[in-house]
Amino acid sequence: MASLFRDLSLGHSRRESTPPPLHTPPRMTSRLTTTDLDSPFGQLASQLSHSDLRATAYEIFVAVSRTSAGKALTYISKSDSPNHHPSTHSPNSPALQRSLTSAAASKMKKALGLKSPSSASKKSPSSAPGSGPAKSRRPLTVGELMRTQMRVSETVDSRIRRALVRVAAGQVGRKIEAVVLPLELLQQLKLSDFTDQQEFETWQKRTLKVLEAGLLLHPRVPLDKSNPTSQRLRQIINGALDRPIETGKNNESMQVLRSAVMSLANRSDGSFSELCHWADGVPLNLRMYEMLLEALFDVNDETSIVEEVDELMEHIKKTWAILGINQVLHNLCFTWVLFHRFVATGQEETELLDAADGQLVEVAKDAKTTKDPQYSKILSSTLSSILGWAEKRLLAYHDTFDRGNIEAMHSIVSLGVSAAKILVEDISNEYRRKRKGEVDVARSRIDTYIRSSLRTVFAQRMEKADSSRRASKNQPNPLPVLAILAKDVGELAVNEKQVYSPILKRWHPFAAGVAVATLHACYGNELKQFISGIIELTPEAVQVLRAADKLEKDLVQIAVEDSVDCDDGGKAIIREMPPFEAEAVIANLVRGWIRERLDRLKEWIDRNLQQELWKAEPNQEGFAPSAVEVLRIIDETLDAYFQLPIPMHPALLPDLMAGLDRCLQYYATKAKSGCGSRNTYIPTMPALTRCTTESKFQGVWKKKEKSPNPQKKNPQVATLNGDNSLGTPQLCLRINTLHRIKSELDVVEKRIITHLRNSESAKTEDFSNGLAKKFELTPSACVEGVQQLSEALAYKVVFHDLSHVLWDGLYVGVPSTSRIEPFLQELDRILFTIADNMQERVRTRVVTDIMRASFDGFLLVLLAGGPSRCFTRQDYEIIEDDFKSLKDTFWANGEGLPAELIDKFSGTIRGVLPLYRTDTESIIERFRRVTLEAYGSSARSRLPLPPTSGEWNPTEPNTILRVLCYRNDEAASKFLKKTYNLPKKL
Question: What is the Cα–Cα distance from 669 to 785, expressed in whole angstroms?
Answer without folding.
Answer: 7
